[in-house]
Amino acid sequence: MVALSADRLSVRRAGRVVVDDVSFAAEGGALIGIVGPNGAGKSTLVQALLGLVPATGAILLDGVPLAERSRREIAQTVAYLPQGQSLHWPLSVERLVALGRLPHLAPLSRISQQDRDAIARAMAAADVTTLAARVATEISGGERARVLLARALAVEAPALIVDEPLASLDPAHQITVMEILRAEAARDVLVIAVLHDLGLAARYCDRILVLDAGRLVADGAPSAVLTPARLRETYGVRAWFGSIEGVPVVVPLTRDSAQGD
Amino acid sequence: MERVTRARLVGGLALLAVLAGAASVAVGSAAIPLAHVVRALSGQGDPIERAILFELRLPRAILGLAVGAMLGLSGAALQGFLRNPLAEPSVLGASNGASLGAVIALYFGLAELHPAMLPIVAIAGAFAALGLLFVLAAGSQSALSLILAGIAVGTLAVAGVSLALNLSPNPFAAMEIMTWLLGSLEDRSFSHVALALPCIALGMVLVGWDGHALDALTLGEDGARALGIDLRRTRMRMLVGVAIGVGGAVAVSGAIGFIGLIVPHLVRPMTDRSPSAILLPSALGGAALLTFADVLVRVIPTSNELKLGVVTAFLGVPVFLVHLMRERRLW
Predict the structure, then answer these.
(1) Are residues A128 and A246 in the same domain?
(2) C-alpha to C-alpha distances, A96 to A122, A199, B79, B198, nearest whole angstrom
(3) Model ipTM?
(4) Do residue B228 and residue A82 have CB atoms under 8 angstroms apart?
(5) CB within 8 A of A189, min separation 6: which ones?
């Protein structure tokens, strides 16, 4: 099983500390949610975990410092779905999903039957098989989000980092995506998801990291982390907590006036 | 729009390039019957005809194919690398730098010292442009800063060319520079081939190496890096390859525009549109197009022989516009 850990990880951007002294360790077989207000440094944190932005502190991937691994090794181990991914060429959906096999291809080589199988599995998992021949720039935003998720799944890496995978998805597909992420975790994949929907995070995640102004302010099981006090302090909101049919529900109600800003 | 299978596309374009090469050997101002051509190629026949074929037409055909292939390939690779459908070899300033080098060689009379002098100074010009580009765009990974730096370098080189024209001592010197700038493959010999071919071959290998990286860049820079692409190496290969290959090509042919811009757009609809899929077809298509244009130059009866760069522009623009109209919905 894959192991990923950060020790005293900090990232500065343009002189500002965006991620501040974050430490945590994670292993495969878990779905970990990263939540926090806009600008809390969630995306930057996951980019640092992938070695995409310069950071101080230590990141270990399977016990080896990230800096000692090649980009290709990292890409084979950790699949990444960035936030708001743009597409520069009007590729077909199938060709786009096939990009996920690039970390496994030698220079100048073509995709093999094994790669084709992985592509088919990823498209089936993300429910986009019927879109295979469509042009990826001409499908709806929700369809595209699922296609891009399929692209990340096609890597079939032991770890998967997804940054806001639920943006522009309808409720049914939000649930589909969370179930896909759960299924990946059940296959011993380490799934780290940046999420905004606290209810879905509470329902599906094994563990939640709360980021506030770059600092890791809470880390634990959803029920331990998502508390009225935590939401007031971090988001400045009052929320209703409950449970329907055994499913935890978190509904933000009002901005907490005592907090002010 | 029907997609053509890759084997058919590559095969068809290769055949086209071979036909263009054959036409380039067979057609010229001296009418040599086809039977004589065949006989000369097998080592017999009239010595004058053999001299025309081997020392005039064959190098011209080889250069046409090689220069066209380099321009087409680098256009396709740069459009993928910079994620910009308007990219072509001149956006990085390499071809303008090579032009400036050639103009310097003409202006200071270096070109008269030795036939190889002009190409050598032109290649040096391409490298100078590349060096300046690195200084300007150093530390930035983004495609946009590279394009802006390339435009700055290219504009500076064009300004240098204009300065040479401005200061040229007499109308004949200015005319010589202008004539060279229009682009031509006239009167090229095997010494030009020997100089350009290694540069072009090396350039094509470097530029054509990174097909996977270009595909990954469809997802942007972070997306590509997360797919295991080392963008610094890709960029190094791309820039050095363009400087060497396009520098070598421009050095022997002069500035020939549009091939690098148009050919990738012509072949793209026949592929799956991924950047790697258009590399080889663009090289073959560029070779065929430039060589056919060079045949056309010899066939069209005009008082002055038409310059190749002029013909490629007139051929290319209408075809290009028609394609853009058809393709518009995809941009």
Answers:
(1) no
(2) 12, 31, 18, 36
(3) 0.89
(4) no
(5) A2, A28, A29, A157, A158, A159, A160
pLDDT of residue B3: 53
* The pLDDT value given to residue B328: 63
Q: Please give the pLDDT value at position B331.
A: 46
Fold of B8-330: ABC transporter involved in vitamin B12 uptake, BtuC (1.10.3470)
| Same-domain pairing of A71 and A121 | yes
> Under an 8 Å CB criterion, which residues of A touch B?
47, 50, 52, 70-76, 78-80, 82, 85-92, 95-96, 99-100, 102-103, 105, 107-108, 135, 137, 151, 155
- pLDDT (0 to 100) of residue B50: 79
Give strand ranges (E) for B107-208.
none
Sign of CA pseudo-dihedral A41, A74, B141, A109: negative
- Considering its fold, how many domains does chain A have in total? 2
Mark whether A186 and A259 lie in a shared domain.
no
Tell me: do A126 and A138 sit in the same domain.
yes
pLDDT band at A259 (very low <50, low <70, confident <90, very high): very low
In the predicted model, what is the mean pLDDT of residues A135-151? 92
- Laid out side by side, the sheet with A64-65 consists of A16-27, A3-13, A56-61, A64-65
Cβ contact (<8 Å) for B273 and A89? yes
Residue A130: which pLDDT band, with cuts at 50, 70 and 90? Answer: very high
Distance (Å, rounded) from C-alpha A257 to C-alpha A254? 8
The structure's pTM equals: 0.89
Alpha-carbon torsion (A189, A194, A200, A205), positive or negative: positive
Give the pLDDT band (50/70/90) at residue B2: very low
Q: What residues make up the domain containing A246?
A: 227-261
User: Which class for B80: exposed (0-12), middle (13-18), buried (19 or more C-beta within 10 A)?
Assistant: buried
Mutation test of the interface with chain B: which of A99, A138, A139, A149, choosing the one with the most B Cβ atoms within 10 A?
A99
Chain-chain contact of A71 with B229 (C-beta, under 8 angstroms): yes
Same domain flag for A96 and A67: yes
Same domain, A37 and A73: yes
Question: Model confidence over B18-33: pLDDT tens digits?
Answer: 999 999 988 877 777 7
Does residue A140 register a pLDDT over 50? yes
Angle CA(A5)–CA(A6)–CA(A11) in degrees, nearest 5?
Answer: 150
On chain B, the residues whose CB falls within 8 A of the CB of A50 are 226
Same domain, A107 and A232: no
Span A37-60, average pLDDT: 95
Do A100 and A121 belong to one domain? Answer: yes
Residue A171 has pLDDT above 70, yes or no: yes
What the block records as the tokens of B171 is: 């109308």
Whether B157 has a pLDDT exceeding 90, the answer reads yes
